[in-house]
Design a protein that fits this description.
The longest helix is centred in the middle third of the chain and has 34 residues. 71% of the residues lie in helices and 0% in strands. The protein has a domain of 320 residues: Hydantoin permease (Orthogonal Bundle), CATH 1.10.4160.10. The mean pLDDT is 88. The termini are far apart. It is found in: Membrane.
Length: 463
Amino acid sequence: MTTTQNQATTLELSTIQPIAAHERHGRARDLFTIWFGSNIMLLTVVTGALAVTVFKLPFFAAVLALVLGNLVGGVFMALHSAQGPQLGVPQMVQTRGQFGSFGSLLVVALVVIMYLGFFASNLVLGGQALHARFEVIGTNTGILLVGAISVIATVFGYRLIHGYTRVMSWLSGAVLLISFVWLVFVHGLPADLLQRNENNIPGFLGALSIAALWQLAYAPYVSDYSRYMPQGTGARTAFWSSYWGCCLGSILPMLLGVLVGLSVGEGDVIAGLIEMTGGFSAIMVAVFSIGIAATNSMNLYCGTLSAITVGQTLLPSWSAQAGWRAVIALALFSGSLAIALLGQDNFMANYTNFILLLLYVLVPWSAINLVDYYLVAHGEYDVLSFFRRDGGIYGTFNWTAVNCYILGILVQVPFMSTALYTGAAAQAMNGADISWVVGLGVVSPVYWLFSRKRQRALKTARA
């Protein structure tokens, strides 16, 4: 066994504690592979297919919307990633610096729920894909199999997850390339593929939004995977490595989803992908299902860290180690498993509504965090205050952040457009959803304006 393999299988002892300088390790390229390798999976393919199956876009409009959405959303994702080497703590712990120790609990609790939802979605898709290609494997059995691999990686922690996605970058990348070649040159695409569906603005904005959300959804945990990086890694290097890893790893499988979605029309996307890849489908499903497990281990790992963050806020003396990570991971897995088993029959409808609702609660948090880090605090925080019950110099509640967060959700309401609710502004625009743009545009300047006085007080307290 090589040194790298030995390191990957080393049990991570820390959970949310600050990472000391002597424990820092890794290179910027590790940030590229973790985001590239973790995004090449079936759920990304299905998300790309939404542009043509749900939002009814033709090929070129779908490609443009997905590429733009990923490139724009990736900026926010990568800006969060660049915080990890500087502070050495998980993203949700660092959120206490903006919201206060107790003020951050609402956001952290929402993040736990969010990753339970993504975990459950991946379980369903992995189980259904395995059953569709290998009939001897029942859907529920497939769900359990994908879940078990995810739990094991979560228990071992940071190094194994990085090692896992490093391998998947090469393996999933090769399988994705072969799948494209097979679809185009072996199976062939419909002659009228470019004529299917019609351009429509609501659909374009909807597809752009889900692509941007795909990137934004990583924001609450992206720095969890850069917090072990040496502080000298540099914000710019961490930014670009994360940005291109995540954008390329997302865009390419989404484009595969567009091709399959247009080919099958109203049919099942995964079943269509299996049929179109013919004899190669067994390898494709197996590798992409393993890829789902890799991503799910990341979801479960960060959901576990967020749950520990909630517990440590209420019990500051609690210093959870690897054993607690295993226990909490199993508890969260059980909850996600129940959601997956109960919601698998209406997967596509549930998943579409879920990711759109996420957009509304993630956008204001991301705006507050990034404005505070880059424009208000300039990356300078008292990390020890993060672990105090009273919040240290940040206090228990920062009402400016809490009120801006609530404002960020409220200003989006008229612009929301989902199957559950459509706001008046969205109706006036024929169902176009620009809520996330409005949320970012309103919250960012308002928070910056009202935070300057607090920042002067924090500088005095630190001095």
